[in-house]
TrEMBL record:
Amino-acid positions noted as binding ATP in the UniProt annotation, renumbered to this chain: 27-31, 92, 126, 177-181, 208-213
Family: Belongs to the ATP:guanido phosphotransferase family.
PROSITE patterns in UniProt: PHOSPHAGEN_KINASE_C (PS51510)
Regulation: Appears to be allosterically activated by the binding of pArg-containing polypeptides to the pArg-binding pocket localized in the C-terminal domain of McsB.
Entry-linked Pfam families: ATP-gua_Ptrans
Any Gene Ontology CC annotation: extracellular space
One of the record's GO molecular function terms: ATP binding
Gene behind this protein: mcsB
Keyword field: Allosteric enzyme, ATP-binding, Kinase, Nucleotide-binding, Transferase
Function comment: Catalyzes the specific phosphorylation of arginine residues in a large number of proteins. Is part of the bacterial stress response system. Protein arginine phosphorylation has a physiologically important role and is involved in the regulation of many critical cellular processes, such as protein homeostasis, motility, competence, and stringent and stress responses, by regulating gene expression and protein activity.
Catalysed reaction equations from the record: L-arginyl-[protein] + ATP = N(omega)-phospho-L-arginyl-[protein] + ADP + H(+)
Identification of the protein by name: Protein-arginine kinase
Lineage, uppermost ranks: Bacteria, Bacillati, Bacillota, Bacilli, Bacillales
Length: 357
């Protein structure tokens, strides 16, 4: 296993399998924030303290005391190029903050990329577990297993009243962020998404774009997560999110059925036009590509398009990002050059799909 493998493959192995409700829920993520009691939080820590935190986590990783996960690879941010960091961000394996702002930052990656443990991000340790489809409870169990194993060797900062102590007070308590990535084209096309997002926010949840805070919901992909971590148990947080996600799944399916009944020919035309653009364009920008990929995935899920893999959305949404395009090109590209390469990559990928049938 090597960094090159993590960089070169767009789709993590866990993404190649379908989970429950994967026509709408692309992935489920659990993230646990933890800090070591003997060191200042990363925002105040000295370089020496940050180095010692990385060393402590690396020692745990090398101890072999983690049978619940695959073997880990330690990737240190100081040892890799900016473009490689960007690719890891695009694969959701590390955060933009870790890539850009951390001191002695690092990440432990499991072989199948289900587990990603960020070191010296906003907190000393951020354990992330990603599962395909709607599997929040399963992801929580997996993350807790790693958390328990780490706590056997590492002394966490914990308070009987406030729970796990974190750099940002909003993460204190359980330190848990649970989130799902959802593809909601039906709610977007029926314009219901505009009233649903504010309603979700009022329930103590937050709706963000594909790469989290500050990012755009490209391709009708939305990330929905909890905001409150203090005063609620992990199970309560996950169950509250699951309840809302179940309602969204139901509403999205109803919206798709309504479109098929009331605007069938218009919907079919939209899907095949988008497929035509992807299959034939010579220049395409990120936003247009994401929108067309969303339409094509909707067409696959609703049966308008046959013999095309559902995973094509997951794969191409990552392959066509700026970091991956430049990684494959072997160096920096101008925006117009990226648009040309993006179009060529999509055309080739669709041709491969047809040849495989």
């Amino acid at each position: 296993m090597s960094l090159e493998r993590f960089i070169s493959q767009a789709v993590s192995s866990w993404m190649s399998t379908e989970g429950p409700d994967s026509d709408i829920v692309l992935s489920s993520r659990i993230r646990l924030a933890r800090n070591l009691s003997q060191f200042d939080f990363p925002t105040l820590a000295t370089n020496e303290e940050a180095f010692k935190v990385t060393a402590a986590v690396e020692e745990w990783a090398n101890s072999g005391s983690h049978p619940g996960a695959s073997r880990f690879e330690m990737v240190k941010m100081n040892d890799i190029q900016p473009l490689q960091k960007r690719v890891l961000v695009e694969k959701h394996l590390i955060s933009p903050h870790l890539a850009e702002n951390s001191r002695h930052g690092a990440c432990l990656l499991s072989e199948n990329e289900e587990y990603s443990i960020m070191v010296n991000e906003e907190d000393h340790i951020r354990i992330q577990c990603l599962f395909p489809g709607f599997q929040l409870s399963e992801a929580l169990s997996a993350a807790n297993e790693i958390d328990d194993l780490m706590e056997e060797s590492l002394d966490y900062a914990f308070d009987e009243k406030y729970g796990y102590l974190t750099s940002c007070p909003t993460n204190a308590g359980t330190g848990l962020r649970a989130s799902v990535m959802m593809h909601l084209p039906g709610l977007y096309l029926t314009q219901q998404i505009n009233r649903i997002v504010p309603a979700i926010n009022q329930l103590g949840l937050v709706v963000r774009g594909i790469y989290g805070e500050g990012s755009e919901a490209l391709g009708n992909i939305f990330q929905i997560s909890n905001q409150i971590t203090l005063g609620k148990s992990e199970d309560d947080i996950v169950e509250d999110l699951k309840s809302v996600v179940k309602q969204l799944i139901s509403q999205e399916r109803s919206a798709r059925e309504a479109l098929a009944k009331t605007s069938n020919i218009q919907l079919e035309d939209r899907i095949f036009r988008s497929y035509g653009i992807l299959a034939n364009s010579r220049i395409i920008e990120t936003k247009e590509a994401a929108g067309c990929l969303s339409d094509v995935r909707l067409g696959i899920d609703m049966g308008y398009l046959k013999d095309i893999s559902k995973n094509i959305l997951n794969e191409l949404m990552i392959l066509t990002q700026p970091g991956f395009l430049q990684q494959y090109a072997g160096g920096p590209l101008r925006p117009d050059e990226r648009d040309i390469r993006r179009a060529a990559m999509i055309r080739e990928r669709l041709k491969m799909e047809i040849k495989e049938q």
